[in-house]
Write the structure tokens for this entry.
Amino acid sequence: MRVLSLVPVFLAFGVKSTLSATLDFQRRSVVHEKRVINPVSWKVHKELDKGTTLPFRIGLKQNNIANLEDYLMEVSHPDSPNYGQHWTPEKVIETFKPSFETVDTVTKWLKEAGISVERIKLAKSQGWVEMKLTIEEAEELLDAKYFMYEHVNGHKHIGCESYSLPAHVQPHIDIILPTVHFDVPKQHLTNPDSNLQRRSVTKGAGLSAHLATAGQLARGSSNASSLANCDTEITPACIRALYKFDDPLLLSTKKNSFAIVEYTPNAFVQSDLDMFFRNFSPSLVGTSPTLVSIDGAKKGVDQMQEQGFKFNGESNLDLEHAMTLIAPQKVTLYQVGDTVEGASFNNMLDAIDASFCTFEGGDSPIFDGIYPDTLPGGFTGPESCGIIKPANVISTSYGFTEVMATPEYEIRQCNEYGKLGLMGVTFLYSSGDTGVGGLDEVCIDPVTGLELSNGTKFDPGFPATCPFVTVVGATQVNPGSTIHDPESACDTVIFSGGGFSNVFGLPSYQESAVTSFLKKHPPPYTAEQFNNSGKVRGYPDVSSNGSKHVVAVDGEFVLVFGTSLAAPVFASMITAINDARLTIGKKPVGFINPAASLYSSLFSFALNDITSGNNPGCGTSGFNATTGWDPVTGLGTPNFETLKALWLVLP
Ligand SMILES: *[C@@H]1O[C@H](CO)[C@@H](O)[C@H](O)[C@H]1NC(C)=O
Ligand SMILES: *[C@@H]1O[C@H](CO)[C@@H](O)[C@H](O)[C@H]1NC(C)=O
Ligand SMILES: *[C@@H]1O[C@H](CO)[C@@H](O)[C@H](O)[C@H]1NC(C)=O
Ligand SMILES: *[C@@H]1O[C@H](CO)[C@@H](O)[C@H](O)[C@H]1NC(C)=O
Ligand SMILES: *[C@@H]1O[C@H](CO)[C@@H](O)[C@H](O)[C@H]1NC(C)=O
């Protein structure tokens, strides 16, 4: 159907518009984004009616964004005189909002192209320009050809193969939607058994908890304080002993905050939490995390149509262990997305930073939940935008892979983590459970760039490769050994995610670690497997135990493997360190990679280097854990006592 409301009628009849006047401009234009390959699952369905009107959004280049890493280092590196001097949200918005020149250049370009000023909307943060265009106008403006595409599953998408911008405009624009981006089709969240569906949990995310094989029921964990069975089942007592994380004395719980993010339809079950608490932390029986509902999410089982490990495993595991380890500190639960549409990392970021919300910051209807949800039974309220101040520490055990979205989308999201780091937030992500391969053990086909079961190129995870988050890999104690023996990389059931980015460059804090790894332990691979230039981000940063954790799920104690376990455990320790700092009047640690990440010499002895194990995938044995940083276990596992002592010394 033609929508003519905002468009002069003559355009709809194909009469040449004033856009012809801009042809000179277009001749001097440069290609801004182009798809190298067409995703296999999509095909051109039909050409579009030239009069069809669509909303178009232009993501403006943020001012000073190239300096983000430097700004972040200034408040996060222990050698910096401004260590710990985190920014206010206002300063962040002011610093990065597009320059006057950017806004001016883009709006002039649109005006000269015949798009009257009344049709152009500028977001409050000035990050986005939005307007409705006919397909004809868009094709002329962007020197593009638009099609309706159809996915094998029936999903439809409007897009083009490439688009161009005038040379003087191009430096002011990050991204225009809809154009070339459409890698991950949205799915409905009814059947988590299918791979596509499971990934769509966060519009393309896999969660990282795996149930141990059948029969590996935990023994009931009858003696919660015993360390004798730590090689067969990990309890909170084992974690405390392993990482010298004795019951910390927390004195600033009112001032402190710690959040765990879960994506609907994953949800916790209170009776399982209570079952776990009865064994391991009796004082918590009956307590729940503090719910922050994002985009219509409901609390725990209230939102659930179904139960089972796939729906409850991740949430129960994260909350049972974190709440026990960090009590009496309250744990906040960011539950994201309704049960109909689900949600993405961007939806969570919208909720904790208003400057990032849809129109102002870059949600994509292809990847992200768009609220209000127009689907039957969906959440009809407004999108959750800036509804809560971000917690000091935020832990997430979900992820997808770099190839599932576009670099522009990922860079824009990654910069947001950097901004939150500037404000003093520590963001932790698990590194994934499939070694150097992608979710479900697919890898990248070097010819098409697609994820295939017979792909041979390593398939790095996202947001794990974003240099502004802290990524936690997994280790395990070798069967038959005790906690007093060195751990090795987790290779019994899952393989710690690790490797090198194809999108993000090498952050300065990681330079010597990555350079030294590639020089001292050159992997027997070529650029066919991974970007071995030594100029890209490597992950994970650190690691923690990721195997055989005792978890109560659906009324039973089971053993769970996965880097899922590692992120909330590490996050609990950072939360206890924040408590100690707050108690003596200092600030939370914020972005920890430059300091604690222990990429600094000061912190190097606060981690137990893991030097055995590897992370196979893509028909290879992956990388080897070795002395120093490695793309399997990062810098190693934490020694809480030492970390805390060091962080108390820092200003
Ligand atoms: C539990 O284990 C601890 C440490 O091994 C031991 O001291 C205690 O007696 C045990 N308690 C029971 C009830 O077995
Ligand atoms: C890690 O988990 C495994 C599984 O129990 C356990 O045997 C080991 O003691 C734990 N230690 C470490 C390092 O994780
Ligand atoms: C991998 O699988 C795809 C799709 O099944 C096929 O087209 C391709 O030839 C295979 N590649 C190799 C190297 O076997
Ligand atoms: C890992 O170590 C083994 C044994 O030393 C070696 O053969 C292999 O090439 C190493 N792999 C990598 C990726 O470095
Ligand atoms: C590897 O990364 C570097 C730095 O980002 C880049 O210049 C280079 O093109 C990449 N190599 C490949 C093969 O993609």
Observations:
- The two ends are 62 Å apart (CA to CA).
- The mean pLDDT is 80.
